[in-house]
Design goal:
Layout (H helix, E strand, L loop, with lengths): L2 H15 L2 E2 L4 E3 L6 H18 L5 E2 L9 E6 L11 E6 L2 E6 L2 H14 L1 E3 L2 E4 L4 E4 L5 E5 L14 H13 L4 E4 L17 H15 L2 E5 L10 H17 L5 E5 L8 H18 L4 E5 L5 H11 L8 E4 L7 H7 L6 E3 L18 H7 L8 H11 L6 E4 L7 H12 L5 H13 L4 H14 L9 H15 L2 H4 L2 H33 L3 H8 L9 H18 L5 H4 L20 H12 L4 H12 L9 E4 L26 E4 L13 E6 L4 E5 L8 E6 L8 E6 L3 E8 L7 E5 L1 H4 L4 E7 L8 E5 L1 E6 L1
Helix pairs in contact: 2-3, 4-5, 6-7, 11-12, 12-13, 13-14, 14-15, 14-17, 15-17, 17-18, 17-19, 21-22
């Protein structure tokens, strides 16, 4: 065996045997530490005490005793080391944390806390440390909006916020982003322990004390900034907010949602607001995103950017920007850095929705479900973040995305980090050393629960069994831990939903088999609430919902916990929503019964039975079902195009008033001026065809134009019907004469807003 190999094996064996007992350690922190560095020391001591009951004493100098030490050191002045970096070094007498600067001390403390194994009355460093590290990206933060729309934040008091800022810092976050009292939200919440402005002041103070950046997401809400009086009022309003905050590093103004102001007026306003901001916070930056701009407004915006406005610090790429990040980076003058604003919190109707989510999940959980997506979030980061060299502050509306925050923070520090190791750190630090790996694997399993058709995903039941094992052996403290409760909730929810889906799909199949006997079919659909599938799982979910309200103020129900809306995380209120065609069938059965004649009733029943049948020589696509859309032109795919600029994506509608077919609750959609395409081959050149399709999706009646093979207009721009129903159009014979056909739904080029302008649910190609 070569000498180098023997040496490496020796070192590996030594590391495997290494375990430093720090249970009785003393923290040595020099007297000259800055305020943020002292806060880092208090974080270290408090985190150990909360997890172990051990109170590490803090001394200004090493006593020289044999007691192990955790030494806090400062890099020598003039060292010119990378900003925010640190060195972690273990030695015979303990551990040393050397920060390159005051934030480096904080992140060094975080690095040590992630490495420690902390148990009741025990602190162990399981492996030797020799780490020198610094962050790749200078900005790594998360939006923390204290407002009613969130699913938990509005219930947090100042100590809650301090704990959460500490948690974020442990994983490398260096910035928070606040929201002012006036935004697209209610002015008050029944959960607020403080009014919005006093809490905003407190959160800014906490950022200042810990040496973290403090940003403001500040929407321009007024309707007419071409009016000088409106501008002056806005300057007074914003200035009063700026004046009260102890720290503001930057302000980010979205171009829309909320607000919708033409670029020339918006940028004129922000030039004045930048001067207003710097009166109170010299050196603070002003940032802007072209969110929601139409094509013509984007042209105007780029023209203004080409003038190189001196007051503007940088540009933000986030939701509803109609060009992709690489293109935006090319088009913006190089002097302006770009900050990423990734949406890591929403599951549907969002910048980064869950990929090809099963409609049962979308129906019952909607936008702000507990959503650990470590693999997908890492992919989004690695594809897009390199084009935003400044870094990121992520869009969040609650603690439902807590795992995603940790993943983004860790990747912002080291883009090459192993995501599973990040999850092990998360499990070790937040849940407990003994189940760190189990919990990490459980989080990965929760992400896999959302892959593919739920009906066929038997791994959902395995995931629940794994979490039930953890639950069975968890300590009382772990059972009260909100992060543990969140993961349990998701595991139970997924398994309950699958049990429902299996049962109700079988009921629907039996109902269809009993047609045309309407009474027998309706009877087959009936579910006894007292004997529903998965009833014990459902009961456990309501227990966990109560536990989460008590532990972290998660509002999983409107009537129970005063959540602002069922679609914003209150999925206990959606738990029994339709996930099959049962409600639509009952509605149709009732309509059929009152038809005037038996032939009419027979035709209506035949339509139900043969709904997806396109007839001889025809084709059918359920475009919202990834397993049943063979003619959809998919585009580049998530792996290359995670923002779906050149990829058709699965989207969802949310209607609670009218029973729909399940295929209408889902659709394929094209974003930001792109077209949705279906490609057919093997058509009969001598035949005549017609196309039937259903548009569902968003309630806004966007207009689309349907074109065949890029030249034959099937119909001009046509607004979507408010009533969801099939529509039919003839296909010119010339379009199918070659035996091949491409159908293309094109958006109105003048559209602006959320970018979801083409949404098609079902398509039949029918041979006439």
């Amino acid at each position: 065996m070569p000498a180098v190999t023997r040496a490496l094996l020796f070192l590996a064996a030594a590391a495997a045997c290494y375990a430093a007992d720090l249970t009785h350690a003393t923290v040595v922190a020099p007297a000259g530490l800055t305020g943020p560095e002292r806060k880092a020391v208090s974080l270290l001591v408090d985190a150990v005490r909360e997890r172990t009951r051990i109170a590490w004493p803090v001394m200004a100098a090493d006593s020289g005793s044999s007691v192990p030490v955790v030494r806090i050191a400062q890099a020598p002045a003039g060292s010119h080391l990378p900003a925010e970096g640190y060195r972690l070094r273990s030695f015979d007498g303990g551990v040393e944390i050397t920060g390159n600067d005051e934030r480096g001390v904080l992140f060094g403390v975080g690095g040590l806390l992630r490495a420690l194994e902390m148990r009741r009355d025990s602190v162990v460093l399981p492996r030797p440390l020799e780490i020198r590290t610094a962050p790749k990206y200078p900005l790594r933060g998360h939006q923390l909006g204290y407002r009613p729309k969130t699913n938990s934040y509005d219930g947090w008091d100042v100590p809650d916020w301090e704990r959460y800022l500490r948690d974020l810092a442990v994983f490398g976050a260096n910035a928070i982003e606040l929201i002012p009292p006036r935004s697209d939200d209610a002015p008050d919440s029944p959960h607020f322990p403080l009014p919005q402005m006093p809490m905003m002041v407190e959160m800014s103070r906490l950022a200042q004390e810990y040496g973290l950046q403090c940003w403001i997401w500040y929407p321009a809400m007024d309707p007419d900034y071409s009016n000088p009086a409106t501008v002056e009022a806005a300057i007074r309003e914003w200035g009063e907010v700026f004046r009260q905050l102890p720290r503001v590093d930057a302000v980010f103004v979205p171009g829309g949602d909320p607000g919708h102001t033409q670029p020339k007026y918006l940028m004129a306003l922000l030039e004045k607001q930048a001067a207003n901001l710097r009166k109170y916070h010299p050196g603070a930056g002003m940032w802007l995103s072209p969110q929601g701009f139409s094509s013509s407004w984007m042209g105007e915006f780029f023209g203004l950017m080409d003038r190189h406005p001196a007051w503007l610090t940088g540009i933000v790429f986030g939701p509803q920007v109609r060009i992709n990040l690489p293109e935006l980076r090319q088009r913006i003058p190089a002097q302006y850095p770009i900050r990423f604003y990734p949406d890591i919190t929403h599951s549907i109707n969002a910048e980064f929705p869950v990929i090809d989510w099963d409609v049962a999940y979308a129906q019952t959980e909607e936008r702000e479900v507990i959503n650990p997506l470590p693999v997908d979030e890492a992919r989004i980061f690695r594809v897009l973040q390199p084009y935003a060299g400044e870094g990121f502050i992520a869009y969040s509306e609650g603690c439902n995305d807590d795992v995603n925050k940790a993943v983004w923070s860790a990747l912002g520090w080291n883009p090459d980090v192993n995501v599973t190791e990040v999850l092990r750190d998360y499990g070790r630090y937040f849940i407990g050393a003994d189940i760190a790996d189990d919990f990490a694997q459980g989080l990965l399993a929760l992400e896999r629960n959302w892959r593919g058709p739920l009906l066929a995903n038997s791994a959902v039941d395995t995931t629940l069994a794994q979490f039930q094992d953890m639950e069975r052996y968890a300590s009382p403290q772990q059972k009260r831990n909100w992060r543990f409760q969140q993961a349990l909730y998701r595991a139970y929810y997924d398994a309950y939903l699958r049990a429902r889906l299996i049962d109700e799909t079988a009921r629907e199949r039996r109902a269809m088999e009993r047609l045309p006997d309407l009474a027998a079919a309706e009877s087959a659909l009936t579910v006894d609430p007292l004997a529903r599938a998965g009833a014990p799982l459902r009961a456990r979910l309501f227990e966990l919902g109560e536990a989460l309200f008590q532990s972290i103020h998660m509002q999983l129900s409107v009537p129970r916990y005063a959540a602002i809306d069922a679609g914003r995380g209150a999925n206990l209120d959606l738990i029994d929503r339709p996930i099959t065609n049962a409600d639509w069938l009952r509605k149709r059965f009732a309509e059929i019964r009152v038809l005037a004649s038996e032939p009419e009733r027979r035709r209506a029943i035949d339509e139900i039975v043969h709904w997806t049948d396109p007839g001889p020589g025809g084709f059918y696509d359920d475009l919202g079902d990834p397993m049943n859309r063979p003619h959809l032109v998919p585009g580049d795919g998530f792996e290359q195009d995670p923002a779906f600029f050149q990829t058709a994506r699965t989207g969802f509608a949310s209607r609670r008033d009218i029973p729909w077919r399940i295929s209408w609750y889902r659709h394929a959609e094209a974003l930001y001026g792109n077209s949705l395409r279906l490609r057919y081959t093997g058509l009969d050149p001598s035949a005549q065809y017609k196309v039937r399709y259903v548009e569902a999706g968003d309630a806004t009646p966007h207009a689309t134009r349907l074109v065949a093979n890029g030249k034959w207009e099937i119909h001009p721009l046509r607004k979507k019907d408010l009533e969801v129903k099939p529509v039919e159009f003839d296909i010119p014979g010339e379009a199918t004469a070659s035996g091949a056909l491409t159908l293309e739904w094109q958006p109105d080029p003048a559209e602006s807003g959320n970018g979801r302008w083409v949404q098609v649910s079902e398509v039949w190609m029918i041979r006439r």
